[in-house]
């Protein structure tokens, strides 16, 4: 009997590779899809087949049709997004009759939590503590907070990787931003403390899996590339209360801040997979949580990293800060998250995947980080960019 088929999208991402390995290890047939020619996860033994799709940001209707055709042709029963293509898939499930289940909430809720202002208002409505956050849609709005600029963090409502963030800028530095209704920003109280990231899995508002972690090294100001698990009761309470209050089904992730008195406040939400997924390595219990609603806890305690990313981003940062010794120790202490028994090819394939991203960066004259998501970014209902 043929194994049930699951479609995992966003095959470029290490979390997509990890998810494919977990699903494959639990006996499922994993079909992968994305827009690059050589995404990381396509090299894995977990990949039954890889399908290249049109870029959703630039051809959303063609993308939706290709996904619909792929579901029908592959006998796919479940679609699991891992990156920002989730919003284009949400639109497709809203506008079409799709022949499979999307492991995500409806488009309205996806949009609401991705909006950095609406997310804070939603958390507040659920009775959760939140930082002061002001929506900026005009020069007049900026003027109302200009005198307090040194106490605030400014960021676009629709953004990723901490791109365009102004951290406690001078009032004069605000002249560089021009928020509007099409391109709104938020001004949020700067919170001193420890950042905690959260990855969670939920069914109908019940929290089934949660990994809390901190990133010691990042790709620029954004995505973590070296991270370690933490435990925090207040952070767990926030995640549990938020998924219960929204009736969440799917993957969901948060950036949180823990103040000195132990209060945990939310910064933003990503309704998709993030690096905390890597702390789950045992396929059977994780897939039982994903498919059947069983509870599962992380089964890895050692820090996780992508060594190639550490050499590209972590080493230059360590050189500039004088932290070479800490860098060496971090490389020694962490496991390579791309390693997996009997599946060596993705580790080698990362060079080809990186070369493809670098080619896009050169052609578009953008950073590697921007190039890595250029074709799947979702910048709100109006699709305006900075």
Describe the protein in words.
There is one protein chain. This protein has 386 residues and is of the alpha/beta class. It folds into three domains: 5-104, Rossmann fold (3-Layer(aba) Sandwich), CATH 3.40.50; 132-189; 198-340, ATP-grasp fold, B domain (D-amino Acid Aminotransferase, Chain A, domain 1, 2-Layer Sandwich). Helix content is 36%, strand content 23%. It has helices at residues 14-25, 60-74, 85-95, 107-114, 116-125, 139-145, 233-246, 283-292, 307-321, 324-333, 345-364, 368-373; strands spanning 5-9, 29-34, 47-52, 76-80, 101-102, 133-136, 152-156, 166-167, 185-189, 194-203, 206-218, 224-230, 250-258, 264-270, 304-305, 335-336. It has a seven-stranded mixed β-sheet, with helices on both faces. Strands 3-2-1-4-5 form a five-stranded parallel β-sheet, sandwiched between helices. A four-stranded antiparallel β-sheet has the order 6-9-7-8, with helices on both faces. Helix 1 links the parallel strand 1 (5-9) and strand 2. The chain is globular. The mean pLDDT is 93.
Briefly note the CATH topology name of the largest domain: D-amino Acid Aminotransferase, Chain A, domain 1
The domain tally reads 3
Approximately how much helix is present in the residues? 25-40%
Q: SSE order, as H and E? A: EHEEHEHEHHEHEEEEEEHEEHEHHEHH
**Low-confidence blocks of residues:** none
Structural Rg: 20 Å
Summarize the helices and strands and which ones pair or pack.
Elements: E1 5-9, H1 14-25, E2 29-34, E3 47-52, H2 60-74, E4 76-80, H3 85-95, E5 101-102, H4 107-114, H5 116-125, E6 133-136, H6 139-145, E7 152-156, E8 166-167, E9 185-189, E10 194-203, E11 206-218, E12 224-230, H7 233-246, E13 250-258, E14 264-270, H8 283-292, E15 304-305, H9 307-321, H10 324-333, E16 335-336, H11 345-364, H12 368-373
Parallel strand pairs: 1-2, 1-4, 2-3, 4-5, 15-16
Antiparallel strand pairs: 6-9, 7-8, 7-9, 10-11, 10-13, 11-12, 12-15, 13-14
Helix pairs in contact: 1-8, 2-3, 9-10
